[in-house]
Design goal:
By secondary structure, the chain is α/β, with parallel strands linked by helices. It contains 14 helices and 13 strands. Helix content is 42%, strand content 15%. Bound molecules: 4'-deoxy-4'-aminopyridoxal-5'-phosphate (PMP). 4'-deoxy-4'-aminopyridoxal-5'-phosphate binds next to helix 4.
Length: 416
C-alpha cells in the first residue's frame, strides 16, 4: 500500500468486465478461452466434442501439413527448444536469416526483419520510427497492436473513420500543421471486418500530402495477390507502400512477425527497435515451420491453396447471406477468408455463439472494444482445407440455430 492509501491492485477487484465474464463462465456461456484439443483442422475436438472450425486464422490449413511439421521438427532437432536470448546476442540461427531473405524476396522488398510475434513487429516499427514530434494517422479499425505501437511512440495520434477517404484526407490536411513527419498506418485486410483498405486511393493521398504509408498484411499475406504478398500486391501498390508488416500466426501456420521494406529502414530497426532487441528471438521450431509454410505459399501449390480458400469464402458467404444473415462486405467487393456476420447487440452475440457451439459449430465473437459499440459480430473464417460438404453441413446447422434463435429472441439484422 502506498502512502496515499491507494492500492494499485484495487482495480482488479469488482471489475465490471471480470464480473460479467465470471457469470458467463459459470453459466457455460463464455465464448472466450475455450479449450482446443486437436490440431486446427476443419473439424476439431474442442472441450470433449467435435466442432466444425469456422473461427481459425489457419487460412491455408497448413498448421497440420506434414512438410510444415517436418520443418518445425528439423529446426527443433538441429537448434534445440529455445535460443534463450535476443537476436542481437545468441538468438540468430541460419534459419532466421534464411526466413528474412525469403520474406524480402516474397514481398519484393530490399530487406525484411523477423520478430518474435506480429504484435511486437508493430510495436517495433511504430515505437522506433515515430517520435513525440511526429503524427500517425490510423484507421479506427486498425489492429490493437498498431494502436499500442502508436501509444508507445508518443506520436500525435489522428484516427479516421474506418475506410473513409474523406476523413483520412481531413486528418492529413490537419497534420500539415503538425511539427514532425506523418505516417499513415492501415490494415490491408481488417481483422474483424474482413474488408480490404482502398490502398490505391490511400497511397495517392499519402503522396499528395508527403506522408509515409505502412500496411499491416497480417490477414492478406498468403491469401491475396498472385504471389500471396497481400492486399498491397492485389491492389497494385507494392512500390508505393513504404513498410509492410506481416505475421506467421495466420497463413504461415506458426508464430512470429515481420517487417519488410527498404534496407535503410530495416537496418535501422535491427539496431534501434527495442521490441526486437530486448526479447528472446523466435524459437527454432516456429521459424522452421514459418519457413516451410512460406516455401509452400511460394511454390506452384500456393496459388491453388489461395484460390481454394477464397472459393470457400465465397461459398460460405453466399450460404450465410442465403440464410438471411447480414454479412459485412468489403466496399471494393474483394472477398477474404474473414466472413463477419452482424449481430449488433453484445448479449445476443453471446447467446447466438452458445447456440452454435452447442450445435457443433465454432466461430469467434467480437464485441466492444474489438468492434465499435453496437457493432457486435460473429467473426467466421474459412480455410483452404474445408470441403464443400463440411461447409454445407455447417450451414444446415447454422440455419436451424438461426430459426430457433429468432423465434425466442427476435430477428437478427437481415441483409441490406
Ligand atoms: N495485426 C493484425 C491485423 C492482427 O490481426 C494480428 C493478430 N491477430 C496482429 C497484427 C498480431 O500478430 P501476432 O498474432 O503475430 O502477434
Amino acid at each position: 500500500m502506498s502512502q496515499t492509501g491507494i492500492d494499485v491492485f484495487a482495480k482488479v477487484r469488482g471489475h465490471e468486465r471480470a464480473e460479467i465474464l465470471r457469470a458467463a463462465q459459470e453459466a457455460d456461456m463464455l465464448p472466450f478461452f475455450r479449450v482446443v484439443e486437436s490440431p486446427a483442422a476443419p473439424v476439431m475436438e474442442m472441450e470433449g466434442a467435435e466442432r466444425v472450425m469456422l473461427g481459425s486464422n489457419n487460412y491455408l490449413g497448413l498448421t497440420g501439413d506434414p512438410r510444415v511439421i517436418a520443418g518445425a521438427r528439423e529446426a527443433l532437432e538441429t537448434y534445440g527448444t529455445g535460443l534463450t536470448g535476443s537476436r542481437l546476442l545468441n538468438g540468430t540461427t541460419p534459419l532466421h536469416l534464411e526466413l528474412e531473405r525469403e520474406i524480402a524476396a516474397w514481398m519484393g522488398t530490399e530487406d525484411a526483419i523477423v520478430f518474435t510475434t506480429g504484435h511486437q513487429a508493430n510495436l517495433g516499427a511504430l515505437g522506433t520510427l515515430l517520435g513525440p514530434e511526429d503524427t500517425v494517422i490510423v484507421d479506427s479499425a486498425d489492429h490493437a497492436s498498431i494502436l499500442d505501437g502508436c501509444l508507445l511512440s508518443k506520436a500525435k495520434l489522428r484516427p479516421f473513420r474506418h475506410n473513409k477517404l474523406d476523413k483520412l484526407e481531413k486528418a492529413l490536411s490537419r497534420a500539415v500543421n503538425d511539427p514532425g513527419g506523418v505516417l499513415i498506418v492501415v490494415d490491408g485486410v481488417f481483422s474483424m471486418e474482413g474488408d480490404v483498405a482502398p490502398l490505391k486511393e490511400i497511397a495517392d493521398l499519402a503522396e499528395r500530402y508527403g506522408a509515409r504509408l505502412m500496411v499491416d498484411e497480417a490477414h492478406g499475406a498468403g491469401v491475396l495477390g498472385a504471389r500471396g504478398a497481400g492486399a498491397s500486391e492485389l491492389l497494385g501498390v507494392e512500390d508505393r507502400v513504404d513498410l509492410r508488416m506481416g505475421t506467421f500466426s495466420k497463413s504461415l501456420a506458426s508464430c512470429g512477425g515481420f517487417l519488410a521494406g527498404s534496407s535503410e529502414v530495416i537496418e535501422y530497426l535491427r539496431i534501434q527497435s527495442r521490441a526486437f532487441l530486448f526479447t528472446a528471438s523466435a524459437v527454432p521450431a516456429a521459424v522452421g515451420a514459418a519457413l516451410a509454410a512460406l516455401r509452400i505459399v511460394r511454390s506452384d501449390e500456393g496459388p491453388q491453396l489461395m484460390a481454394k480458400v477464397l472459393e470457400n469464402a465465397r461459398h460460405w458467404r453466399e450460404g450465410l447471406h442465403g440464410l438471411g444473415f447480414r454479412v459485412i462486405e468489403s466496399e471494393n467487393g474483394i472477398v477474404t477468408p474473414v466472413v463477419p456476420v452482424l449481430v449488433e447487440d453484445d448479449w445476443k452475440a453471446g447467446l447466438l455463439w452458445k447456440a452454435l457451439w452447442d450445435a457443433g459449430v465454432f466461430v469467434n465473437v467480437a464485441i466492444h472494444p474489438a468492434v465499435p459499440p453496437g457493432g457486435a459480430l460473429l467473426r467466421t473464417s474459412v480455410m483452404a482445407t474445408h470441403d464443400t460438404a463440411t461447409l454445407d453441413e455447417a450451414l444446415r446447422r447454422v440455419g436451424e440455430v438461426k430459426a430457433a434463435f429468432e423465434a425466442e429472441h427476435g430477428a437478427l439484422p437481415s441483409p441490406l
